From TrEMBL:
Pfam families recorded: Pept_tRNA_hydro (PF01195)
Name this polypeptide is given: Peptidyl-tRNA hydrolase
HAMAP family xrefs: Pept_tRNA_hydro_bact
Annotated site residues (Discriminates between blocked and unblocked aminoacyl-tRNA) in this chain: 10
Keyword presence, Hydrolase: yes
Molecular functions per Gene Ontology: peptidyl-tRNA hydrolase activity; tRNA binding
Listed NCBIfam families: pth
Record-annotated site: Stabilizes the basic form of H active site to accept a proton: 91
Enzyme Commission number(s) from the entry: 3.1.1.29
Subcellular location: Cytoplasm
Keywords, in A-Z order: Cytoplasm, Hydrolase, RNA-binding, tRNA-binding
Enzymatic reactions: an N-acyl-L-alpha-aminoacyl-tRNA + H2O = an N-acyl-L-amino acid + a tRNA + H(+)
InterPro entries with a match to the protein in the record: Pept_tRNA_hydro, Pept_tRNA_hydro_CS, Pept_tRNA_hydro_sf
Length: 186
């Protein structure tokens, strides 16, 4: 069984620890814990890892958030990954900070990265792991909020939430979406 795990974010040091880069952060944490490395490839940083008989490909698209679908489509075709074995890790304004939800499908909900994926895959039926970043921003300041680093109050809690998200990724690959939803959704 082969899986493609896509953590969404923006490349560049100015975005490194911003809320919008939570997908990159989850994959970086997994890589550090399980000793696999990313290399720069076409359209993404890519890593491969075998876990419990599963071949897992991880990508961090270098296309910037709003064009994430281009990298995902390319690597799905490259590795012949079926849509049900794709998992997209994305920040979610509508969930409180640290709340994690995995779903087998859904709308883009105004998220431009998901909107682009939906357009290029021609479906909304692909699994996604939504990582709550909260919505503590004044009206009209959403872009500023998602492109700012986590607050001093949030930072100490972040590693635990990243670990939980990593556990959900591995569960998705080994137990499947339904079991992962039953075991982890809050």
């Amino acid at each position: 069984m082969k899986y493609l795990i896509a953590g969404l974010g923006n490349i560049g040091p100015e975005y490194a620890f911003t809320r919008h880069n939570i997908g990159f952060m989850v994959l970086d944490r997994l890589a550090a814990q399980h000793d696999f490395k990313f290399s720069f490839e076409r359209l993404a940083f890519v890593a491969e890892w075998k876990h419990k008989g599963r071949q897992i490909y991880f990508i961090k698209p270098t296309t910037f958030m709003n064009l994430s679908g281009k990298a995902i489509r390319y690597y799905m075709d490259q590795y012949k990954i079926p849509t049900e074995n794709l998992l997209v890790i994305v920040d979610e304004l509508q969930l409180p900070f640290g709340t994690l939800r995995i779903k087998p499908k859904g709308s883009h909900g105004g998220h431009n990265g998901l909107r682009n994926i939906e357009e290029l895959l021609s479906t909304t039926e692909y699994p996604r792991l939504r990582f709550g970043i909260g919505n503590n921003f004044p009206r009209g300041r959403q872009v500023d909020y998602v492109l700012k680093p986590f607050s001093n109050e949030e930072m100490p809690e972040l590693p635990v939430f990243l670990d939980n998200a990593g556990d959900m990724v591995l569960s998705f690959c080994t137990l499947g979406i339904q079991a992962t939803m039953n075991n982890y959704n809050q």
